[in-house]
Amino acid sequence: MIKNYFKTAFRQLWRNKFRSLLTMLGLAIGISAALVISLIVYYEFSFDTFLPDKERIYRVVIDANFNGVEGHSVGVPAPLGNAIPTELTGVERTVPVFQFQGDATAQVRVEGDQSSEPRTFKKQRQVVFTNNDYFQLLAYDWIGGEPSATVGQPYTVVLTESRAGLYFPTLSPIEVIGKQLTYNDLTVTVSGIVRDLDKPTDFSGKEFISLATIDASPLKDNFMMDVWNDWMAYSQLYIKLEADHTAAAIQTQLNTLYRSHNTASGKDITLTLQPLWDIHFNPHYPSVGGRIAEKSTLYGLLTAAAFLLLLGCINFINLTTAQASQRAKEIGIRKTLGSSKTQLIQQFLGETVLITSIATVFSILLVPLILHLFATHIPPGLGADFMGQPGYLVLLSLLVLTVGFLSGCYPALVLSRYRPTETLKNQVSSRTGQSRQATIRQTLTVSQFTVAQFFILATFIVTQQINYSLDADMGFDKEAVIKFDTPRDQEQKRTALLHTIQSLSGVELASSGFLAPADQGMSFTNVSYHNGKEELKPTTQIRWGDENYLNVYRIELLAGRNVLPGDSTKELLVNEQFTKAIGFQRPEEALGVSLNWNGRTVPIVGVMKDFHHQSTRALISPLLFERNSGSTFHVRLKPNRDGQSWSDALTQIQKAYGQAFPGEEFNYQFVDEMVAQFYEREQATAGLLAWAMSLSILISCLGLLGLAMYTVNARTKEIGIRKVLGATVTSIVRLLSKDVVKLVLIAIVIASPIAWWAMNQWLEDFAYRIEIQWWMFVGAGLAAVVIALLTVGGQAIRAAMANPVDSLRDE
């Protein structure tokens, strides 16, 4: 029986090759998109799910509130990790994780032996200081050394198998034990080798220096191991609770412990236990060098995948029911010979599952190509091999069965209902065009184009907002300006380098300071103004640089003057928003006003025109500027007239940097590119929407093409008669196209208000945003109509130009 089902299915596929190709192509596109999207989502939600007792693992983070300004940090006071085991109950494991300061990288020197020279690896990442509990928490597999005997000793390091192979490529893991490595100025001995974690995780360490090394070395002061009232992002802390204790109870104990050691500012800070499952998704607590996945984006991707799959299923239903009359006699004969309705349903569902399986196999082959094409949207570490995960294979099987059932259920029910007497008398085909199946096909076609129209509108509006944000007047000139960091503890060399750079032929102006006017980071300061009645404390950001900083970025002064050269802060600049926040309507009114800042009384000598200090998502807030040189250089290059000027200037700057700081790596960034990075999330969204839009239009057009072919074939004799009676080609094309245009217009009417509402919700994230205009909907609607007409136009013209004798010959 099953063998006959498959035989019949293959015969049908071969007999209707083009229709089968359209059906499978529509399904394959939807399934390919669903496979890649589900792969991304499954991967993101798999982070750290392999850890034993994962529900009892938490990260300690900080929630702060200073004068109404909220802040969050993954960094905690360094001594907290040492205090928890002795002062708290209910904690099974305490795992401090420290990274190197600065850019969280280290220069690693591998000592040579008699047959090799020493080798140096610059800017090595994923080097951490931690304790033995770290390896117990993550259940590492040891292939060299013993954790209890090695991790607790100072001046030792445990390497992952990949790093051991990098540093000592000719040695086995056992032979690496006892070798020495130097991290910056810290020499340690390899005491253990562990296998690399092969599952998605936010624990990214590859080299683990024993935590005891910090206390036994000069690093103790650098890491502030005895300081309770300060913290840094490089000091993180994880804990694992005992089975019978709750997070709320431990968090209460934790804050009591913290405030007992930090009586000065502890009242403004709350230590919070962040669950392990939240670490990969919470944007308030980004780790140094870590990556945050947005659940809203993932859910949006799943929605897009569901729509694309639905479009593929609609395609199948439309094309199958449109061809129903061609199988009517087959069904009549089968029923006459004794086939039951159940057997027919099984036959047609089997055909659907077969088509779906073929489409799925084709889609699986396309996955590596799609991952390559959309590499910018694919999470790092995700490859096609991840599809071999048992959980994902189960998901894939369910996908095939679900799509097969949804696609084949309705056609199977429709076809199995035909009565033998009607089908054998050829009465089905005469009624098909007016049957309710035709209405359902029209409804499904409208549904397809509604989805496609929504994606067209969404893509257009998102792109418009991104372009608006990128081209918006930021209040400063970001073009042709680069910024780069220099070592913080070498002020004399920095001063000399600044003069050298300023003298270069390709440099217009150079300045030293810290953050650019708009930067990835934020820096707040406490400042107040007493107006005689009350003390005002606006939430204020701060920027600082030397006297050339404003000129490098061409920031306009509305009143007063720029800061003067000097070694200490004796005067401040503020922006327009600050003057309004302290009660002045005109900028010049604030000149000479004294502010209470850092325990000193400092006058306002200038008012800057407002500029964006974050992306256009945020409102411009009060800001002050102090004169203070820093370790970040800001350099405006001269106009690039010949295409080579900037390249030559950058080469000269790099050479000067190398002479000032030998051995240090020179990394620069154009400020306009940095500002563009503010909108990476939106650009990724636009790219994915464009992808979904293209696929939805393609699938819809495939279905429309199949229906157009069916309509033309069904109306061949009608068209012949019309031509004999004098109908022109234009009138026949108009006749065959008007129904399609009507369906597309209905889809536009349905999709437009939905898209308007959804895009308004999305635009609410932007303080400075475009307005959704009527012409956007008109443009998107015209695009949909043109696409539909191009799809059916070829079939309509071919039918209209056919010789009517051929179509009427059988009459």
From TrEMBL:
Membrane-spanning segments: 21-43, 298-319, 348-371, 391-415, 444-462, 688-712, 740-760, 772-792
Cell compartment(s), UniProt: Cell membrane
Ranges of residues in domain ABC3 transporter permease C-terminal: 304-418, 693-803
GO-annotated molecular function: transmembrane transporter activity
Endpoints of the signal sequence: none
Alphabetical UniProt keywords: Cell membrane, Membrane, Transmembrane, Transmembrane helix
Superkingdom, taxonomy of origin: Bacteria
Domain MacB-like periplasmic core, first and last residues per copy: 20-256, 521-652
Main location: membrane
Membrane topology qualifier: Multi-pass membrane protein
One cellular component (GO) term of this entry: plasma membrane
Protein name: ABC-type antimicrobial peptide transport system, permease component
